[in-house]
Amino acid sequence: MKQIVIIMAATCVAGCGVDGTPKGDKRMGSGLTSLAASDSPNRVNLPDAADVSAKEKSRMVARAALDLEEVLSKAPVPLPPAPVPTASALVATDPAARELDPGVLMAAESAWARQAPKKVEAAGIVAPVLPQPPAADPLVELAGRMAGLLAGPESGRIPDAVALAAIEGVRPGVLADLESPTNTLGSSLSPMDRAALLAARERVLASPSATNDALVKSLARMSPPAALRIARSALCRRVEGFGRFDAIGNDTFIAGKPIRAIVYVELDGFTSRPARDGDPAQSGLDVADQVSVDLAQSLTLYHDPSGLQAWHRPAQRVVETSRATRRDFYLTNQVELPGTLTVGRYRMKVTVTDKTTGASDEVTMPVNVVVR
């Protein structure tokens, strides 16, 4: 920069004069100083080139450079005015603002026009700062979307339980008093959206079992169904129901006597299918409104450790039908093992197959035959 200033000063010395001193006066100054001291701002006196020695010319160049630097350092640098954003400009540049309600944007722009912008100073630059548009309430936005899905075409309508569960997941209990004037969510929704949510809430409360089924089916689509599994097995004296059984205290039996027992198993991961004609459907109820669990169970007694089969009961099919999907299921099979079993250790293997999916599982239980 200094080299550029010196070159400009030299040019000024060659083309500009000093102040109007008499010819031969050795007091030399820069052309800028002379211009500032002149009676007329448009008059510049040029010295006689013959009276200016080489040494004096160098001094003139240096002085002119210093004067020019001083002038440039004091000159104010104008800054362009900062653009004033508007709501329409915000929509054009910010994709997130396009999701705001148009009425909210119009209200914000009107408020900006009435309010004098605040100012902050950063890095020496003064720029206006305008208030940001109000942020949308995520819960209100979610509830509005769910209401729209509830009121959509029947073929693509979202289940009531799923829509309401999404809202309750954000703020538990908010739907209990949705119709109350003090409910902030209800007062923020349009009358149509609020009515859609209230109707869905009443349908859910009227049929809680259907609500559970809808939630289970929706979540089941996210992952493959659980594999069939025998969760518990036992040899029992008596069975009264699911989880209610009287197990035989030990696995040891006396040789020469028939072994009587009830084979009890509890199942997880079984599936239900729509009931069919021929299933043991509930009388007085349409088959289309029922579902069936379709299983098969086989029993085999093996000698341990040889693995030779000592007794077998082929697979027996078990179909049970109900109005709603079963949450638990158990199987019982009364057996009588022959008294001709020799002394030794045996394994009772129970195999269960889900006829709907083809999945199967098996478990073994010890049976020891001893001499009295």
Explain the overall architecture.
- The chain has 372 residues and is an alpha+beta fold.
- The chain has 3 domains: 73 residues, no CATH class; 83 residues, no CATH class; 142 residues, Immunoglobulin-like (Sandwich).
- Helix content is 32%, strand content 27%.
- It contains 10 helices and 12 strands.
- The strands form 3 sheets. Strands 5, 7, 8, 9, 11 and 12 form a 6-stranded mixed sheet that branches.
- A hairpin with a 2-residue loop joins strand 1 and strand 2.
- The protein is elongated.
- The N terminus is likely disordered.
Summarize the structure.
The protein has 372 residues and is of the alpha+beta class. The protein has helices at residues 2-15, 31-37, 54-74, 87-93, 102-114, 138-150, 160-170, 184-188, 191-206, 208-220; strands at 118-122, 125-129, 229-241, 244-247, 252-254, 259-268, 273-274, 291-304, 309-322, 329-337, 344-354, 360-370. Helices cover 32% and strands 27% of the residues.
Q: SSE order, as H and E? A: HHHHHEEHHHHHEEEEEEEEEE
> Termini, distance in Å?
116 Å
Largest sheet: 6 strands, mixed
Content-based structural category: alpha+beta
Please identify, by name, the CATH architecture of the largest domain: Sandwich
Do you know the CATH topology of the largest domain? Immunoglobulin-like
